[in-house]
């Protein structure tokens, strides 16, 4: 009897038939317009859809083996459901401006999820705060110092090879080297929309090259396509590159003392294995407090140095890293933050990926901008980022695959949402702190590079 219970097929860690009962309840509520609004209803739906799509991806042979498995299917599956209006939402308006709903009059599930998920990051911020705090505090202190010191050369390697490869092929294909770099590679490497394309558009406008609106309309497709390509490459390359010399299976450093990336003693591991719900509550509080601290420092910095904007995520990463390096946080609290990070990652990642697919992956934009030249140049920007980071990463002591994914593809994706998607597809979620360095501090580097390039080359566009 015990053996039979252990062998029952499970979904969301529940026996499949129990999950199915509750999933049916949620789906009925969704398509009858009775699903509660806000966090409760959105969480229920996102968990159901995310769990089902993730399971499909994990059992689809080619997708599972080469394209990132469940994470890819959740992201693109959710985006497809939204694109084809298969979820309750507004599908148009009448001549007098009245909204037209596809399933239930007055019920817009997609808008509810956007409200829950998107403003100021909302759920995404909550998720990333847990991952950054828990993963950094769970690292080996010596490893953190060594990796951080070598990480920026890998980022510059990604930028140089991405720009160079895109310029060369852009010239060959008749698109133009300068146009290829400034309008495709630059926005792709810029860290998404809010922290990338939007401030870049203002730099374009201030340089007199074009208006901000014109720049945004040109750069948005590149950012969206680059994000999609980065996610697919994240899942594909970690599976294709098998060599133990190149693929660290989630470990960034190649040095002998980094054989265990977390550097956890048996005593520490025993503490981590002893789960206490009160400990996770402490971890949640500390993570959110660090997140708030990041915003405090960002506000002070942006007031004192308005010309160089540094995102609150970056200050949060720096602050948590400093606390870890100088052993400021007591070990028990480090364990609490690590347990909270593990809880969030293992239980809420599929739900988060649903939100990314519905709220951030605009398939319509990708499809409308599709042309062979444009697609090839976007692909080369991303693959160039991977190769540059991998090559330089190997020189400074990183595993090339992990360096290419974090310092490369997490530069060419769409910021925080792209980091989660790429690392989930690559099964490297523990490397989130480095991915966030790429997106936030790397994105700030791109702003500076963009300003310099536009001042020199903008008139040639």
Overall description:
The longest helix has 32 residues, at 141-172. The termini are far apart. The strands form 2 sheets. Strands 1-2 form a two-stranded antiparallel ribbon. It contains 20 helices and 4 strands. It has helices at 2-6, 16-31, 38-59, 61-66, 70-83, 109-117, 123-137, 141-172, 177-188, 193-206, 212-240, 266-273, 277-304, 312-325, 331-359, 363-368, 372-395, 400-412, 415-426, 432-457; strands spanning 10-11, 14-15, 90-93, 99-101. Helix 9 (177-188) crosses helix 11 (212-240). With 461 residues, it is an all-alpha fold. It folds into 2 domains: 2-117, no CATH class; 125-460, no CATH class. Mean pLDDT is 84; it is low at 256-262.
Summarize the structure.
With 461 residues, the protein is mainly alpha-helical. The chain has helices spanning 2-6, 16-31, 38-59, 61-66, 70-83, 109-117, 123-137, 141-172, 177-188, 193-206, 212-240, 266-273, 277-304, 312-325, 331-359, 363-368, 372-395, 400-412, 415-426, 432-457, and strands at 10-11, 14-15, 90-93, 99-101.
């Amino acid at each position: 009897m015990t053996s039979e219970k252990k062998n029952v097929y499970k979904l969301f860690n529940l026996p499949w038939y129990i999950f199915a009962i509750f999933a049916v309840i949620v789906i009925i509520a969704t398509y009858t317009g009775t699903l509660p609004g806000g966090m409760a209803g959105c969480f229920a739906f996102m968990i159901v859809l995310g769990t089902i799509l993730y399971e499909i991806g994990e059992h689809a042979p080619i997708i599972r083996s080469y394209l990132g498995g469940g994470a890819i299917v959740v992201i693109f599956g959710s985006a497809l459901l939204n694109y084809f209006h298969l979820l309750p939402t507004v599908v148009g308006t009448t001549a007098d401006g009245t909204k037209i709903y596809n399933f239930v009059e007055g019920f817009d599930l997609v808008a509810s999820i956007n409200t829950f998920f998107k403003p100021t990051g909302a759920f995404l911020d909550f998720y990333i705060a847990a991952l950054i705090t828990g993963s950094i505090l769970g690292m080996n202190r010596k490893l953190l110092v060594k990796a951080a010191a070598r990480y920026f050369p890998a980022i510059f390697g990604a930028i140089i090879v991405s720009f160079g490869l895109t310029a060369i092929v852009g010239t060959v294909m008749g698109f133009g080297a300068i146009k290829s770099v400034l309008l495709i590679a630059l926005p792709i490497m810029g860290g998404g929309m809010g922290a990338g394309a939007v401030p870049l558009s203002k730099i374009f406008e201030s340089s007199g090259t074009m208006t901000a609106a014109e720049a945004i309309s040109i750069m948005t497709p590149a950012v969206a396509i680059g994000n999609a390509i980065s996610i697919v490459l994240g899942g594909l390359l970690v599976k294709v590159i098998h060599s133990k010399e190149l693929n660290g299976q989630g470990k960034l450093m190649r040095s002998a003392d980094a054989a265990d990336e977390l550097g956890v003693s048996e005593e520490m591991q025993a503490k981590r294995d002893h789960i206490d719900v009160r400990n996770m509550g402490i971890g949640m509080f500390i993570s959110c407090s660090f997140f708030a601290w990041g915003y405090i420092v960002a506000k002070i910095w942006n007031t004192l140095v308005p010309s160089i904007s540094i995102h609150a995520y970056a200050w949060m990463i720096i602050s948590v890293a400093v606390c870890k390096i100088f052993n400021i946080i007591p070990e028990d609290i480090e364990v609490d933050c690590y347990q909270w990070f593990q809880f969030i990652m293992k239980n809420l990642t599929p739900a988060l990926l649903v939100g990314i697919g519905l709220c951030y992956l605009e398939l319509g934009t990708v499809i409308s901008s599709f042309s062979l030249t444009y697609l090839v140049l976007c692909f080369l920007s991303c693959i160039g980022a991977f190769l540059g980071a991998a090559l330089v990463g190997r020189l400074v002591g990183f595993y090339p695959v992990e360096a290419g994914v974090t310092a490369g593809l997490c530069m060419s994706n769409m910021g925080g949402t792209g980091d989660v998607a790429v690392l989930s597809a690559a099964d490297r979620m523990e490397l989130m702190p480095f991915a966030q360095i790429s997106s936030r501090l790397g994105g700030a580097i791109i702003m500076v590079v963009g300003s310099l390039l536009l001042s020199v080359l903008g008139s040639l566009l």
